[in-house]
Each structure stands twice: as structure tokens, then as C-alpha cells.
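A student in our group prepared the protein record below, which I am reviewing. I have pasted the whole thing underneath without changing anything:
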Amino acid sequence: MSPTPAPTDDVMAPDAAALRGLLLVHAALLVGGGVALSLPVPAQGWGILVVGVAYAVALPLVCRAVGRGDWAALAIFLVPVSVFQVLPDWVLADLVGTLAFPDRGGPRVDDVIPLAMAAMWIAPLFLAVVLAGLRPGRSALAALAVFAGAELLAPVVGLWEPTGATTRVLGVALYVLPAEAALGWATATAFLLTRGRPLAHRVAGALAVSTFYLGALVLAHFLIDVAGWRLTA
């Protein structure tokens, strides 16, 4: 594997206009998400899907409008990453049995996962990687913080919830936290390695991120919740 390219200076030093644009699009996401969650079922699920798709379209446009082509490239890369993230969720929900998605309406994958989840990974990953300046190590720490907040909030608003025999603190399944830190690292690394390459390479990189994340989830679940840690002779 070739060395990870160094982040560009403009990622590390956003100007005021870029920050305002970033705040504006995410404020709109929060408002739109709040409106969607206030809708009755089944309109709620459809509303969440519409907000997620609108955000996925608006984010790279806003990034380009404020002169941040690097952020726009990241936002576009995160679209296939977010779509592929349905696969780890599907495995956890339908095979491992440690995750559940309440039915809020709207289309669902195999009657297990809301299709809206295919767009819901973009925002937390974008924020984590951008706030970390595209540094993979820092992205891991930022992702840990961002996703810890998301895991605390999700059951409260009814988006998803941990199930099964998992170790939990404040309702958060502990095994997901190291895996989500690994996800932040993998996302930044894959983006840096595939940026500027053909579309097929970027899509393959996105799939590699989700596959790596699935492995990290299963390994963390085994080590934290399943392994007995006994030595026998």
C-alpha cells in the first residue's frame, strides 16, 4: 500500500466563510431532522429519508460554493460509504442480534433497516474527518466523540437501539465505540488514498471502509461481550 498522502493546508485552516457555510448546512440538517422526527408514523420515516437525501445533495454544493473543493470531494466520497454502511447494520441486526431499528415508516431493507440509514452516516463522518483536519489518527478520536453522542441520542429519538447481551454504559453498547473510532480512521485514510482516482477506485475504497468497520464491530463485540478470557491447560 502506498503511503497515506498528507492533508492539504486548506483543510487544516478553514476561513470564516467556509465555517459559516458549514454551520448553515448543518443547522438546516438539525432543523429538518427535528421537523421529520416530529411527524407521525409512517410520515416520520419518509421525512427522515427526504432530509438525509437533501443533506447528501446540499453538502457538496455548499462546500463548493464556499471554495472548499476538498470538503466537497470528501462529502461525495462519503455517499457510497454511507450506502455501504447499511451492510454492517444489517449484519448486526439480522445476524448478530445486537441492534434494532424501530419501524418509523418509509422503505426498509429486508424489513430490518430503514433505507434512510443509507444517508445518515454522511454527517457524523464528515464532521469527524473535517474537524480532525483529515488526519487519520485525529479522525479516529473525533469519530469516537461524535458517534458516542449519536449513540446516546439515537434511542431517545427512536432511530436505533442496542439489543441482545451487550455491555452497556448509559444505554450505549460499549463494543461499538472502538469500532466507530476505527471507522473514523479508515474513512480518512481511504479518502486520502483514493482522492483524485477513478470512480471505481473511490467506490471500492468506500466498500473497504464498511468492510473494515464490520470486522472491527464483530471483533470488538467478541472481545468485550463474548470472550471468556480464561486460560486452560
User: Anything to note?
Assistant: DSSP finds ten helices and six strands in the chain. The chain has one domain: 11-226.
